[in-house]
Amino acid sequence: AQSVTQPDIHITVSEGASLELRCNYSYGATPYLFWYVQSPGQGLQLLLKYFSGDTLVQGIKGFEAEFKRSQSSFNLRKPSVHWSDAAEYFCAVGPNTGNQFYFGTGTSLTVIP
Amino acid sequence: ETGVTQTPRHLVMGMTNKKSLKCEQHLGHNAMYWYKQSAKKPLELMFVYNFKEQTENNSVPSRFSPECPNSSHLFLHLHTLQPEDSALYLCASSRGGGTNEKLFFGSGTQLSVL
């Protein structure tokens, strides 16, 4: 069965510190992988996506993610966190055809000064 | 501004009420979605419309009734809801056509059922 696991419910980091949010997926075919961010009271915004090719993908706001097929992971990273990065982050997996996207439960990020 | 607008932003309703959520997208997309977001649970896909045709219905109770009159508008009609239906309801759109693209989300309707 297809699923996405985000093991960390909540993470707190200091401003300027590096960040890594974990995502593991279970999928029966070649996955298309996404990271979305949700600010309070807002919908989800796409940060980056992986379809094929280079396993290290760059996204908006200085985020990047690395696809590791052997570990079924797609972890999100940022070298230096800003206070405005405080939000909820969702990992998602989708098919190469069709509309069925599967989301994780999200990781809430708090940034302390 | 994502190009996907949802109204109302907040809705409080009793279990015997009938209400509707509205979603409008100005992106020229052909696929529209309803998701339910509950605390500490993954986003739950409820319905998908591709070119105005419903292509997904993930075992959603009949008290939720979607309507897609055209590719730009999507409604979710609500009646005799239960308190456990309280959640954030998100609308999304994508280019559609069976290929995989990113979703554009609206800001959601926060629904409280009393």
List keywords for this structure.
heterodimer, A: 113 residues, mainly beta, six-stranded mixed β-sheet, four-stranded antiparallel β-sheet, 12 strands, 51% strand, B: 114 residues, seven-stranded mixed β-sheet, 11 strands, 0% helix, globular
Weakly predicted, low-confidence segments of chain B = none
Please give the count of helices of chain A: 0
**How would a textbook summarize the main sheet of chain A?**
6 strands, mixed
Helix percent band of chain A:
under 10%
Provide a quick synopsis of the model.
The complex is a heterodimer of chains A (113) and B (114). Chain A has 113 residues and is an all-beta fold.
Description:
The complex is a heterodimer of chains A (113) and B (114). Chain A has no helices and twelve strands. In chain A, the strands form three sheets. In chain A, strands 2, 5, 6, 10, 11 and 12 form a six-stranded mixed sheet that branches. In chain A, β5 and β6 form a beta hairpin. The model of chain A has no long low-confidence stretch (mean pLDDT 91). Chain A is mostly beta strands and 113 residues long. In chain B, strands 2, 4, 5, 6, 9, 10 and 11 form a seven-stranded mixed sheet that branches. Chain B has a four-stranded antiparallel sheet with strand order 1-3-8-7, with no helix packed on it. Chain B is mainly β. Chain B contains no helices and eleven strands. The model of chain B has no long low-confidence stretch (mean pLDDT 90). Chain B is globular, with a radius of gyration of 13 Å. At the A-B interface, β5, β6, β10 and β11 of A face β5, β9 and β10 of B.
